[in-house]
Amino acid sequence: MAELKPDAILIGFGWTGAIIAERLTAAGLNVVAIERGGWRDTATNFAVTFDQDELRYMWRHHLFQNVAQNTLTFRNNENQMALPMRHLGSFLPGTGVGGAGVHWNGQVWRFLPSDLAARSHNEMRYGKSAIPDDMTIQDYPVTYDELEPHYSTFEYLCGVSGKAGNLQGQIVPGGNPFEGRRSREYPNPPLDMTYGPTLFAQAASEAGYHPFPHPAANMSRAYTNPLGVQLGQCTYCGFCEKFGCGNDSKASAKTTILPVLMQRPNFTLLTESEVLKINLDSTKTRATGVTYVDSKGQQQTLNSEMVVLSAYILHNVRLLLQSGIGTPYNPMTGEGVIGKNYAYQITSSVNVFYDDKLINPFIGAGSLGMIMDDFNGDNFDHTGLGFIGGGYIGVLNTGARPIETHPTPDGVPGWGGLWKKSVAENYRKTVGINIHGSVMSHRGNYLDLDPTYTDSYGQPLLRMTFDYTDNEHKMSDYLTDRAADVAKRMNGREVQLKRRSGAYSIVPYQTTHNTGGAIMGTNPTNSAVNKYLQSWDVPNLFIQGSSAFPQNAGYNPTGTVAALAYHSADAILNQYLKSPGPLVHA
Prior knowledge:
This protein is α+β, with helices and mostly antiparallel strands. Helix content is 22%, strand content 17%.
């Protein structure tokens, strides 16, 4: 291989790595992306002859991080000893070209304008007492209006199927009336709706709520994106979540950007290569490149004038800590920023069982569903409720894979003949309502390096300390009750509530929506990066992804992750390259 002389090194090649690489190479920069996993393409890895293999992809974790090679340790609080995850559960980080964006559902959301001003908005509406002393939320240093054009760019890249609810300030029937102003309609119309979401939407409308089609990066029709890449129409096979797409009907970095990037001579992708450290000069204020282990197991050093950290949030934070960049967060004093404000999401559900309706939930797509946003963010009055935040409520027909999906009413045993009989009777006759809630950051929830456990290279594992607080439990219970109100209007045989109670458990799958640890803010004392995702400490280092979120909203994060990446790329090209150095002066 010829000697590499990149202008920029990207660490990790998922959505953000692909977005930054496309923008920088289009401007003429030489870019090298380093991905620890292997190459993937549709014909080889997701052919329709074997793609719908639930055992391989869901249960044997074919697309996910291999915890035998690298994992993290977990505890609910500092009084516990953190133990390593030996099997992925609550979240499923990806590995390989395309990252977790290969096996995502394609749920593309914009945060509410108030989500980006979580502290100032809530203090203004409810008073400073609404935010407890140990709640460490803060405003984003960017506004919705600043991100709006970048949200739109990503939606058109992905060919998102949906219906605008606020088009240039005008509320549009059939869309989400609570969303921020849109500059243009979605590029594709909504997916064709199946029976379960339709029943939910009818009941929600009767209750006075505002249901709308879930915005989906699953193609409702054949689509060619602005880069000239073609995506096929969705076949509703129901194998999106935790699977690749055999039809190229689901947008991912692999299906929307990579075909263009691989044709550019100024782009190089190194696979099966893991970065161990971001190297710094003697002043510790400039990144000189990276140290990595290549596909042959040899340790290499690659130098560059700019480094972009574009791995998954957990790996972003771990690399910063291992590289000695920024001050590690201390929960006792509240000082330091690296690892601060780790957040997640809180989910619950309500099931409606029928005798007289065939729902056929196996007909699905990753983001096929009807949603109501009446209880998301600050779309409702929180006065006297004892919490802030919210979430969306809706029915998503993601496919009901048979090994994973076995709905049974309360009182049915968890195994045996009666359980089997109940699964057979209820599988095609159950509608599940999902509640997808926010998590506010708190002082005791954070990430750091584990003092005991190491990886195969002898480096400390990342340690996660996290639990839900009263704010999250009160909010989740309130939303679950609202979902139950709609469920009762759906006229089923019975309604079953599945609350999220007790301490957070890392064992059952919930969402792969981890956030924080390298948050964005207005100065180095409250954040790791500025509004352009540029490190305060190392100005030629840009840190992408949801690690920048100061807290987590009630939406799936990918749309906002992408919008922030485009915002960052514009700043790199239009400001930083013209005058390298800090783009924001504290």
